[in-house]
Write a structure and sequence with these properties.
One of its GO terms (biological process) is regulation of cell shape. The protein is 61% helix and 6% strand. It is mainly α. The protein has one domain. It is globular.
Length: 392
């Protein structure tokens, strides 16, 4: 919004004063700081209101260790605070002409709506079942298809005839492998692959949200990692590189994304603004959610954040790398899949309880120790993902 205002008045005296708004680096930092401050300011009142509305209701899942029952009475749906801060930071500082920004807002708020329905049903029906899994999947697919075919597809061909054309690159990049060596084009099959990434990530974050602060810090780490990846792939930032011409070595300016062997991402800098808003909103929520939590994220937050991270993986062309970035989330959903498959096939459980963080709880590990160790692993995963840039 502020960027659009700057574009309107850029040739005036006021426009010269606001010249700093044209720099993505300023807007990235500003979006994060604004989201953080907003969350810290409105968080206490929002939590107090949630506590009043949910007084006397159990917000603890039934399929958790018995130790979680002491958390009864803690209000849920705190993810609403995260969504409000993300939306405000993005709308204020991102370039709203960017399709990528609107795709991310649609996925985030759309999946947040699904989570709201789930949380509301749990509270109104006074049970932990919520929205049926099949209905949840249908709604997740609906918002994904609206984003892809409504915002990432053009329906008019160059010759004026009617026909769909994807506006997103359908090629895949793989970690540690330069795009010039292996860069497969999936064509329209890419839509199905991207659906798996977005919906799978959303559900993985939802499963991870089982301990105080467990899901939000890996989300923050992932958002920081994506901010770097998006900025690198979406700007004209160049690096001096040596090139031999006619036997003479000279320095030439090479775009950073080309130097690192990644695909160029239109609107990448604006995606970095969105990532910064996630970071700021996430840190403000952590202030209230850290052990022992004053508020739970709820599905309104976990499904939305998972959808956002899946969307970032798709738009930044890091679909495969996201398996590394989201190492914690991937391990959590994989543990559930292993547990279910093993029990159905052999009648035996691999873990004491799934997702895997509950397994460590039942083995006697203290909740804060589990949380912090998962955070450390998440930071490690983000670092490995960034290393893969240079090794391409």
């Amino acid at each position: 919004m502020l960027y659009l205002l700057y574009e309107v008045i850029q040739n005036s005296e006021a426009g010269r004063v606001l010249n700093f708004l044209r720099y993505p680096t300023f807007r990235i930092i500003a979006a994060g700081v604004f989201a953080l401050l907003l969350g810290m300011l409105i968080g206490p009142k929002l939590i107090a209101r949630l506590r009043l509305k949910q007084h006397g209701q159990s917000n603890v899942r039934e399929d958790t260790p018995d130790s979680h029952q002491k958390k009864k009475g803690t209000p849920t749906m705190g993810g609403a605070l995260i969504l409000l801060c993300i939306a405000a930071g993005t709308l204020l500082f991102a370039d709203l002409k960017s399709r990528a920004v609107w795709v991310m807002l649609l996925l985030t708020l759309g999946y947040g709506f699904i989570g709201f329905l789930d949380d509301w049903l749990k509270l109104s029906k006074r049970n932990s079942k919520g929205l049926a899994g099949r209905k949840k999947m249908v709604l997740q697919t609906f918002f994904f298809l609206v984003a892809v075919f409504g915002l990432l597809t053009t329906w008019t061909l160059p010759d004026g005839s009617f026909g769909p054309t994807l506006l997103i690159n359908t090629k895949l990049t793989l970690p540690f492998i330069p795009t010039r060596w292996f860069n497969p084009d999936l064509g329209w099959f890419y839509v199905f692959f991207a659906w798996i990434v977005v919906v799978g990530t959303s559900n993985a974050v939802n499963l991870t949200d089982g301990l105080d602060g467990l899901a939000i810090v890996p989300t923050i780490v992932s958002a920081i990692t994506f901010a770097v990846l998006c900025y690198v792939a979406g700007t004209t930032l160049s690096i001096a590189d040596a090139e031999v011409v006619g036997g003479v070595s000279k320095l030439v300016a090479t775009p950073l994304y080309q130097y690192l062997g990644v695909l160029q991402v239109p609107g990448g800098a604006e995606l970095a603004v969105f990532c910064a808003a996630i970071v700021g909103a996430g840190i403000s929520f952590l202030w209230f959610n850290t052990y022992p939590a004053s508020v739970f994220m709820g599905d309104i937050g976990s499904l939305a954040l998972g959808g956002a991270l899946g969307g970032l993986a798709m738009l930044s062309k890091n679909e495969v790398v996201s398996a590394i970035i989201h190492g914690i989330f991937f391990a959590e959903i994989l543990s559930v899949m292993i547990q279910v498959t093993s029990f159905k096939m052999t009648g035996k459980r691999v873990f004491k309880m799934a997702p895997v963080h509950h397994h460590f709880e039942l083995k006697g590990m203290a909740e804060p120790k589990i949380i912090v160790r998962f955070w450390i692993v998440s930071i490690l995963c983000g670092g490995v993902a960034l290393l893969s840039l240079k090794l391409r």
